Amino acid sequence: MIEYFLLLLGESIMIFGTLGILRFPDVYTRLHAATKCDTGGAMTILMALAIASEASLLIKLKFLVLAFLIALINPMVSHAIARGAYKYGIKPEVVVDMYAWDNP
Amino acid sequence: MVEEDLLVNPFGWGVLILIATSLILSYRVLFGPTLADRIVGINTVTTKLVVILAIFGFIMEEYFFLDLAIVLLMVNAVGGLILAKYMEGAG
């Protein structure tokens, strides 16, 4: 039963990540949504597969190795893309100014 | 046979959702305003493809799909790093 709950959670994260990539106004905010979508959704679905699989222990370990590699690789690539986009000359459009929120 | 197995299993319906979101994301790849938007879209679509390969390996019980998924993930990492390095140099 728990693997179907994990599958539903992963698919929800995938759908909302796609919505964020489509609707956010900037490269950096889109990258924020993409990282959540990739890492969280894919790792959750792969853990559900590792629980639901009826194969031998080695195959389950291979699913977990895939999840570990996703957790290792995806944030690294996202960081490199953000750094490259800033060096490319793209300025962020969204400015978070929390001091102005508290002191109008 | 494959279609019957695909839609009996709840993981098969997950494959349909992943394919639908990938097709929606191809808008961002085709019409992205800058180069970085297209790279973000390509990376997300490739990660969804890795998950689709793993689910196919689980449903059809042929586990060489997992090796294909690991290789595709590493190609995704190297390609993303090379594109980021290219953007860093071209600015």
Automatic annotation (TrEMBL), chain A:
Transmembrane spans: 6-25, 37-57, 63-82
Record's keyword terms, sorted: Membrane, Transmembrane, Transmembrane helix
InterPro entries cross-referenced by the UniProt entry: PhaG_MnhG_YufB (IPR005133)
Domain of life of the source: Archaea
Record's keyword annotation contains Transmembrane helix: yes
GO function term, MF aspect, one: sodium:proton antiporter activity
Keyword set includes Endoplasmic reticulum: no
Pfam family, one: PhaG_MnhG_YufB
Annotated protein name in UniProt: Multisubunit sodium/hydrogen antiporter, MnhG subunit
Organism, as annotated: Thermococcus sibiricus (strain DSM 12597 / MM 739)
TrEMBL record, chain B:
Organism annotation: Thermococcus sibiricus
Superkingdom of this protein's organism: Archaea
Pfam family, one: MrpF_PhaF
Keywords from the named record: Cell membrane, Membrane, Transmembrane, Transmembrane helix, Transport
GO molecular function terms attached to this record: sodium:proton antiporter activity
Membrane topology: Multi-pass membrane protein
Transmembrane segments: 6-27, 39-59, 65-84
Protein name: Putative multisubunit Na+/H+ antiporter
Primary residence: membrane
InterPro entries with a match to the protein in the record: MrpF/PhaF-like
GO annotations of cellular component type: plasma membrane
Record's subcellular location: Cell membrane
